[in-house]
Every structure is written in structure tokens, then in C-alpha cells.
Amino acid sequence: MPDIVHVTYAQTGQSSKTNSFGMREMQEKAYQARDAQYLLLKAPPASGKSRALMFIALDKLGHQGIKKVIVAVPEKSIGGSFAKTNLKDFGFFSNWEPNDQYNLCTPGMDGSKSKVQAFKNFLDNQEKILICTHATLRFAFEELDESKFNNTLLAIDEFHHVSADADSRLGELLRSIMQKSNAHIIAMTGSYFRGDGTAVLMPEDEAKFTKVTYNYYEQLNGYTYLKSLGIGYHFYQGKYTSAILDILDTNKKTILHIPNVNSGESTKDKHNEVDTILDAIGDVVSVDSETGIINVRRHSDGKMLKVADLVNDNPNTREKVVSYLRNIKSVDDMDLIIALGMAKEGFDWPFCEHALTVGYRGSLTEIIQIIGRATRDSSNKTHAQFTNLIAQPDAADDLVKLSVNNMLKAITASLLMEQVLAPNFKFKTKLSETDKAEVGEIKIRGFKIPSSQRVKDIIESDLNDLKASILQDDTMLRAIPGNIDPEVINKVLIPKIIQVKYPELSEEEVEEVRQHVVVDSVVKSGEIKEVGDKRFIRMAGQFINIDDLHIDLIDRVNPFQKAFEILSKSVTTKVLKVIQDVIEATRIQMTLEEALLLWPKINDFVKTLKKNPTLQSTDPLERRMAEAIIFLKEQKRKAQNG
Hints:
Blueprint: E1 5-8, H1 25-31, E2 38-42, H2 49-63, E3 68-73, H3 113-124, E4 129-133, H4 134-141, E5 152-156, H5 169-180, E6 184-189, H6 203-206, E7 210-213, H7 216-221, E8 228-236, H8 240-247, E9 254-257, H9 270-281, E10 282-287, E11 294-298, E12 304-309, H10 315-326, E13 336-339, E14 354-358, H11 364-374, E15 383-391, H12 400-421, E16 426-429, E17 441-444, H13 453-461, H14 463-471, H15 474-477, H16 486-501, H17 507-525, E18 528-531, E19 534-539, E20 542-545, H18 551-554, H19 561-570, H20 573-585, H21 592-609, H22 620-641
Parallel strand pairs: 2-6, 2-7, 3-4, 3-5, 5-6, 8-15, 9-13, 9-14, 12-13, 14-15, 16-17
Antiparallel strand pairs: 1-8, 10-11, 11-12, 18-19, 19-20
Helix pairs in contact: 1-2, 3-4, 12-14, 12-19, 13-14, 16-17, 21-22
């Protein structure tokens, strides 16, 4: 099936140009905030966060009174991103020169006595830089007083691993160091969805961080080679291993992530899955004893392919393969990487053209990390592709409810990714007919501007996180098949989710955030056309002049409209019926707010069609109106008898 999302970029080369200090665009933006005690850097994979940290850390060591720098990464393989780096030759005042003795991302247990002792020794000697895993940091912290981190910069890479959950030891450690030492902290993440289930930081802790956000659009639009990115879904029935060759094009440099063994898509034998995939591609000719790389002769034309198996748990073999992958220099050095939990964040293979993932991924963080493997700028590609291979719901399957939920979440995730990858607009209130929008602005009548700094911060830094909470909410997912009135979605369901996520906001602030979320979602999901000097946006099937937008008009547009269109086109009538039946069985209960919002629409319906809405209608919205009438009559009866 065609891509759900297809975005084209301008190839300006801007994001890879460097300034007089040797800094790329994102690094310069981060460096401008170098004086902050707590800095949160959100930037896409491949934007250069590792080097941005080096610039800031060296400035803190040289000019801000910081004595030591600790860099913590989630897994050992990522430690290589912080190896010795020459920065002076490009105009910076100092080189990044960690001592190999204090790079603790080496073979062996992260919590071993020797690594913990090395960490403690570092805090007591004259060394300046230490690199370790999150786990080593946690184990060492258990044996230290927080005051040991005074005058230290703690940099946490892939910060979304931290959680505000009480069971997250890394989250606890961070809060403790913030409360009981004067340490500086730099938190870095390539994900726009930090903490899919639980927030990364408590709101009061997060408010202490200066935020630098470099978005995906800035990054990809500024590339030299990559021109477009596609995001698509392919639905299969039966075993995924029999459908894999429909999607896997071995002419394209591909990372294939097979499903988690606990998922419905897994056959429960991961090694056999790899063997089946290899047999489908061709004949295994040999396995290189030095590198662990598998040589496969392709069935179709006899071409030899190099395949890396990262599913194999054997530590010796895996270490060889990882070492080979780390040193790839040429486009011909690798054709296909098959992985399960590896090759996601921090994994660098610039030549990768296609990230193919089997099975629904519940974590949006994981999705954006996987997409990031294919979005590096490289001379061998002009297009990058992410494809998710997902099981199609089957009415006869015991897991049909779960399968429907996964499918709906996958579609909303792709819409969310489309919005992350699109250019940002500034939305402002239109005060009069002569009040014209500037470039990059859209002015809307009746639109509320933020009344507090907290609302401004949410809109500037957390909008994608908030949209993720809304679009992946179980109640909202039930609205995708078009059975809930758009105004009910926008004015009843969305504010409730905002209130839960930000309980400290006043009613007025919730409404300001709500308007921004709805407007941003509707505009980014809408198709914009320019005719002469006028711009038109497609909403709910019709084009409207952008200069005539009013918040009331936008509130009448279903933010799930595109998801519903995708669903209708992607599946057969039979599967759509299965989805609707599952939704019907878990209907959202009627609330007084929804019934009152629907009442004027019911009156319009009766006036126009000269009949009452009926429960037997094939139109889900008409059925919902009929339910609202029954609900209101019941409320009236209760009031009279009460």
C-alpha cells in the first residue's frame, strides 16, 4: 500500500554547514544556552548532540568553574560517540580528550567492583572527563554522597530512559543530585516523546530546565542529499515471515527489526525467524569467522549480500558483529541488519535507506528512534523509508480487541510523526480584516494567546508530547471510525486529557492549550494550496481561505479525519466491520457535556431531514445523536422524579 506520510524537503544544506567554531546549526543553538545550570536538549537523531555536549562541557570546564564532566549513555556501544575529538582545527578553543582509562563503556558488567571503584577514583583525582553507562552511574551513586557531585557536570544521553516513576532509579538519582548538590545537568534526547507512559520529570523539576529544541523539519530540510521521507504500513495475515519479502527489498540498505518475543506477531522462536528470513532471501554461503557477518547468495540473481545478525545472543559472535558495524566505511560493507532490541538509539549506519519494523511498537520514542536510523544524510540516497508490518485484525482471533487497538495506535502514530516532520507555523489572533499574517504565521479569529509562561512553555516544548498523550489515549482511539462528533472530541475529550496531564493549569490555561493543540493538529493534517497570493487549506473535504479561519470553524473539524480516511482505504470492508464491532462493544459512555453539545445539531438534523435520528442508522454520528436523545430524556426523567 502507498505511504501514509510522504514529506519532501528543500535540501538547503543548512543543518550540516558549520560556523567559525566548527559548530553545526543545532550545536550553535545549544551552545548559546551553555550557561544554564540545567539544560534539556531535544534534537533528532544524527543532528550532532554528542558534539554539542563536548562544546558545552569544555566551556563549563574552562570558563564556568566546573571541575569534572560525567557522560552517561544507555548502552556501551553508544560510548564510542564521545571518543577523543579534534575540535581546535575547526576553530574551537579546546579539544575533547577523555582519558581511555576513564571510558567505562568497556566489556564486563556495568556494576562490577572495578567499574564502580574507577568511578569513585575519578571523583577524587585530577581527571576531567568520565564516560559510563546509565547502569554504572546508578551503581556508583549508591555508594556515594550527593555532595560528591558538587562542581560536576552530569550529562545524560538518551534522556528518555529517565522516568518520574518512583521505581526509576535513574529518575530518583537525578532528583536527588538536583536537590542536594550544585551539579550542572545536561539532558539530551533524540525523541520528541519523552516518557510514553510516565513523564520523564515531575513538572516542578522540568520547570528548572532551560530547553533547547531543534526540530526534525529544521534538520531534514537542511540536508544536502536526502530529499524525502516516507512512512507506511503494510498489513498481513498469517505469519509475518511469509509476508516479509513483499516489503523487504534487498536492493535497499535495510535495518529489519523483528517482533519482541512477547508480542502477538512473534512466532516465539527468534532464531528460527532469522533463519526463515535468510532462506527466503537466498542461500547462506558462509559466515566470516573474524567478523561474524553472514554471506548470502540472493535467489533472484545470485548477488552476494552481507547480512548482520544482531538477534544472536552469543556474546562472542555479537561483539564481533557490533565491532564490524562500528567500523563500516563503505556503502558496500553491509546490505541488511536483522535486529531485535539493538540498532535503535545511538546506532549509526548512515547508508541505511529503509527501516522495516515488524509488529506494533507501543512506544513512540522507539518509533522515532528507529526512523532516525534511516534519516541520516548520505550520498547513496535521496529517499528514506520507514515501514511497519502489522497483523491485520481477524474476527476469529482471540486477540482481536488488542489487534484493533494496535492497528489504530499505529495509524495515529504515523499521523503524529507527520506533524513532527512538518514545518512549524506560528498561530496568532486575527484582530481585524486588515491584520495580515507574516511569513510562517497563520492568524485566526477568536484564537486565544497564552496568558502565562507555563502555557507558552507547553506550546513551545511539549506540544508533541501532549499530542502523543491525546492521540494514543484509548478513549480517543474509539473516535477514529467517525462515531464521535468533532466538537465533542475537541471540546470535551481533549480538555480532559490536558487536565490530567497538567493538573496545575487553570480552566482558562487549559482552553489556551486546547486551542493550540487542535489548531496545530488540524492545520498540519490539512493540505495547503497556494492560488495566486492566497493560501487555502483543505478541512473536512473542502478548501477554505486561510485568511478566513475562525477557531469555531476549526473546532468543527475532526482531528482524526485523516486517520479515518487511511483506515477506510487500507483495509477491506470486512476488516473495517471487525474494527467497528470491537469499537461498538466498548462504546464511550455518554456524558451530559457531550449530549448538550449535540443538542443543537440534533435540532438542525430534525429541521433539515424532517425526522429524528435513529439507532438503526448506518451513519455512526446519527446513531450517536439518537443515543444523546435517549440520554437526555433519561436525565430529565431522573430530575423530575428526584
